[in-house]
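request received
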Amino acid sequence: MLRTVLVLCGFQLLGESLAALLSLPVPGPVIGMCLLLVVLIIRRRVTPQFQQHSHALFAYLPLILVPPSVGVLAHLELISRDWQPVVGVLSITLIISLLICAAVYRISRERWS
Amino acid sequence: MILDWQAAQQAILGSPVFDVALTVACYQLGLWCYRRSGNKPYLLPVFIGFVLTALLVYLLDRPLSLYETGTIPLIVLLGPVTVALAVPLYENLHLMARIWWPLLLMLGITAVAVAASAVWIGRSLGGDEALVMSLAPKAATTPIAILIADAIGGYMGVAAVIVMLTGILGAMIGPALLNSLGVHNHAALGFALGLSAHAVGTARAFEISRQCGAFAALGMSLMGFTLAVGLPLVMG
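response:
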């Protein structure tokens, strides 16, 4: 497990340093993810251990997301004032997303079966 | 012997593990509710955990900065776990082999349309600019969305909650709406759920079938990847 965590941290640090080096606005961990994906594609395999440990980490992802979500407490005033754009974006963009997916499926239906 | 109740209470509230313990306890309770209910999307463990933790932090009158400092051990893991998202993306990449162009077309149009309409609707309804930047990455999965929001001048907390609500709503109405629009193919249904409702949609898709779930995981990863790279470059 420690090896997997170390590899992941290594890719994150690589991503953060690349973002700083090239003044990229893309978050460091995301660049780390891209680099790891490239390495996996080039090696054409992912070791069972690395795979197993990554999935073990994902089991805790929802828990890790609770503290950043609680940060919304700092913006309650803003949200209660601007509730219209929040509710509007939340509902309308979801419908748009589902409608587009259905439309693309219908024009390419024979490719999916 | 004098029992110093006040000192005991101070010891608990001042302990370095208090915030982590509070968060894990609320999350566990959420997990329990979710399992007892038979996995209802609106009882998502992360959502219940968030609501309970936020409520307790608020009721205990605990300064948010104190809570944030206390939960750094959890927040630090966000980066490595985001890097690890490359693994499920790699595992599901082979699903693209035969149907790559409908998948890429669906991904591309949905990503542009959702991000652009979020910004446009947010601005035209008079939303504060930082608020709009928190809404723009709503189609990305939470860990990626909060990183994007932070990178483009939004609020991580707002983005996290909006993404959660999107996932819950999408998992609740998505399958029925897509079915009524003639999408019965499990691959297409899953991919659409992953694109529109990320992790919660993917969990819902796995209840429909394994194939549906795998395509949802692919859709969620590709959407996160696309927005993570695209939005900061366009907005930044």
